[in-house]
């Protein structure tokens, strides 16, 4: 029992027990971008800006990543980024991303020692796993198409802070 003073007389009020708290969360804001991060059953929308370094559209997402879980980048309709099952598609892991992500069922090759990059050539069976610590990160993506101008999400460059 909890005692509460009200109008100089004490009242006994029974505390709420066994009642679940209702947690209200604000719906995420729609950024207008059609690029999402999927980790387990969670889907998070990326925002975008023009990269000051590369002068091209760069997507970014800030949130908690969980170790040893598969990471996917997709469009809202479920199409994967990069596309799978075709040749010359995959990822470039840059800087910290080389330690934070691990490719499975893919061909990986290190860049030159001076460029701090790892190239991952994927197939329809390839998977990308987050293997870093459980904490808040910002992931940056640059998505490239082929040289013929087709909008095909062929290659993804990943950087993580």
State the end-to-end CA separation. 49 Å
How does CATH name the architecture?
A: Sandwich
User: Total number of β-strand segments?
Assistant: 15
* Anisotropy-based shape: globular
Tell me the major beta sheet. 7 strands, mixed
SSE layout and pairing:
Elements: E1 2-6, E2 9-13, E3 36-39, E4 42-45, E5 47-50, E6 57-65, E7 69-74, E8 80-81, E9 90-94, H1 97-100, E10 101-104, E11 107-110, E12 117-121, E13 127-130, E14 135-144, E15 155-160
Parallel strand pairs: 9-15
Antiparallel strand pairs: 1-2, 3-4, 3-7, 5-6, 6-14, 7-8, 7-13, 9-12, 10-13, 11-12, 14-15
Give a brief rundown of this model.
With 161 residues, this protein is an all-beta fold.
What does this structure look like?
This protein has 161 residues and is mainly beta. Residues 1-27 have low confidence and may be disordered. Strands 5-6-14-15-9-12-11 form a seven-stranded mixed sheet. The chain is globular. Helix content is 2%, strand content 48%. The chain contains one helix and 15 strands. 20% of the residues are buried. The chain has a single domain, classed as Immunoglobulin-like (Sandwich), CATH 2.60.40.
């Amino acid at each position: 029992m909890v005692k509460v003073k009200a109008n100089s007389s004490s009242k006994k009020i029974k505390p709420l027990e066994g009642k679940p708290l209702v947690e209200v969360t604000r719906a995420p804001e729609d950024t207008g971008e059609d690029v999402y991060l999927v980790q387990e059953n969670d889907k998070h929308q990326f925002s975008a800006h023009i990269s000051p370094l590369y002068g091209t559209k760069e997507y970014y997402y800030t949130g908690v990543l969980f170790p040893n879980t598969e990471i996917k980048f997709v469009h809202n309709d479920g199409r994967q980024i990069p596309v799978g099952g075709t040749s010359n598609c995959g990822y470039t892991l840059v800087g910290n991303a080389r330690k934070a992500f691990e490719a499975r069922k893919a061909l990986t090759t290190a860049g030159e020692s001076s460029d701090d990059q790892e190239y991952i050539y994927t197939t329809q069976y390839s998977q990308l796993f987050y293997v870093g610590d459980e904490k808040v990160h910002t992931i940056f993506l640059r998505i490239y198409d082929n040289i013929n101008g087709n909008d095909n999400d062929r290659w993804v460059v990943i950087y993580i802070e």
